[in-house]
Amino acid sequence: MDDVQPKFLLIDADEQICGSCIDAEGVFVEESEDDELGTVEILGCLPSQRMRHYLSGSKRYRRRNPLGPGALRILDTAGNSLAEFRMGEIINWRPSPLGRERVDLVARCGDYVPSSRTRHVWERWRTARPDRINQWAGYTGADREEWLTIVFHNSRWRTGHPDRSSGRTYGLDGTHVTDKVSFYLAIGEAVNGPGGYFGWNLDALSDCLCGGFGAEAPFTLVWHRSHIARESLAFSFEGAGADSTYFDVIRTVFEEHEVDVVLR
């Protein structure tokens, strides 16, 4: 069992790996009116030396050498990092039936856990990352929103590289831009390719245009089939002018950052 590809990594508060884990239960939860977060059971964890000392130590040892709350990092089937969920304290552990050196842990959930109703979207990313644009277009509603959530989480490992130089031209395929979420999915892929991130709301879009997210402004954005977004984003936006639509506000954000938007 120790040669099994881990599905999760346990990360401590110092961003150090303290365990590789075969599976976890409770990461995806049923929607409930109760806001209280529960627990996650981490299965088949192969602990680091530091974690072994922590788990085998006395209560006094654990108080003096705390293993601070960290995160549970989801890996894809190739072993690459996909996303992280914050995790609270470890409250129980036992030997795991999944391997002699492994343990099963119970920890408190952090401040966010995804819905079990959208787990299939996460599994889609985990088993086959996007390799073409618009692969999100078949999803609607909460599933499409969850796709954008994954894009946002995954951007941590996709950004941080030098921006492409200013003066370039990017093409946005507006075929499926029928709501706000789909615009941010489309602009992310226009700039950073399939599954790419370039904001998830207006403030985040503005931040991305300041640099550090793949493209240095000023640049040119050719928005193909822009009439679809002009119609679907024609609703008014709080804080904008009385006659301004969400589509207008997006264009204003680009203009403020010297992006030339060519509508096709």
Describe the protein in words.
This protein is of the alpha+beta class and 264 residues long. Helix content is 30%, strand content 24%. It is built from eight helices and nine strands. It has a six-stranded antiparallel beta barrel with strand order 1-2-3-6-5-4. Strands 7-8-9 form a three-stranded parallel sheet. The longest helix is centred in the middle third of the chain and has 18 residues, at 141-158. 34% of the residues are buried.
- In DSSP terms (H or I, runs of 4 or more residues), the helix count works out at 8
Helical residue percent? 25-40%
Strand residue percentage: 15-25%
The assigned structural class equals: alpha+beta
Radius of gyration: 22 Å
Largest sheet: 6 strands, antiparallel, barrel
